[in-house]
Amino acid sequence: MPEDQTLPSLWLLSDRRNDAVLEPTLATLPPGSGFVFRHYHLTPAARRDRFDALAAAARRRGHLVVLSRAWGWGEDGTYGPANFIAAQPGLRLATAHDAAEIAAAKAASADGVFVSPVFPTRSHPGAASLGPARFQRLAALARMPVIALGGMTHDRARMLGIARWGAIDGLAAPAIP
Questions:
Q1: Is residue 5 assigned to a domain?
Q2: CA-CA-CA-CA torsion for 139, 145, 150, 156, nearest 10 degrees?
Q3: Whole-number pLDDT of residue 133
Q4: For the domain that residue 73 is a member of, what is the CATH number?
Q5: Domain containing residue 72
Q6: Does residue 84 form part of some domain?
Q7: pLDDT score of 175 more than 50
Q8: CA-CA distance, 147 to 28, in Å (whole number)?
Q9: Residues 122-147: pLDDT tens digits?
Q10: Which residues face 10 on adjacent strands?
Q11: Residues of 107-129 as b/e, b for ≥16 C-beta within 10 angstroms?
Q12: 71 within some domain
């Protein structure tokens, strides 16, 4: 990560569920927030078109734009498993769910790591969550900026006393069916 750049405190992640409200949500986030474009459900051509539209909306607010599992579309960085982000240019944000994935993120020289799921989440119904204590233990292992993900909301971030967090539903909840 460039020396003059710090990771945003707040991150919006795209998903099929929040697609209809992404533009208005990006417009209401504090300037300089982060946006991770995922949209795995789309065909490659439709995914690229949607990325271009949302990246433009994000940049109008000064948001950082990160692309998941692809590169070369004008993104500021990449998001995904450590083995994917390791070879990518720009900002590299790893995903981690356990200590082994934290170690892999460190080995990949990730600029930050999304640790999840902190709480139960609609993205992975029925999956076990870390809970606050296990999340804090994993975060302490990271030695890089940590972004909490999974069931996160403003209130939960405040309760945990964490600097960075991201959400799908927790930021775009009004339009979630």
A1: no
A2: 80
A3: 96
A4: 3.20.20.70
A5: 10-175
A6: yes
A7: no
A8: 20
A9: 777 777 899 999 999 999 999 999 99
A10: 165
A11: ebebbbbbbbbbbebebeeeeeb
A12: yes
- Helix (H), strand (E) at residue 35: strand 34-37
Is residue 161 within 8 Å of residue 129, measured between CB atoms?
A: no
The DSSP secondary-structure symbol of 108 reads: T
pTM across the whole model: 0.91
Do 68 and 38 touch, CB atoms closer than 8 A?
yes
| Residue 33 near residue 57, CB atoms below 8 Å | no
In angstroms, what CA-CA distances link 37 with 47, 71, 96, 126, 156? 9, 11, 17, 24, 23
Residue 159 resides in a domain: yes
**Number of domains composing the chain:** 1
Task: Give the pLDDT score at 4.
Answer: 40
Residue 30 DSSP label: P
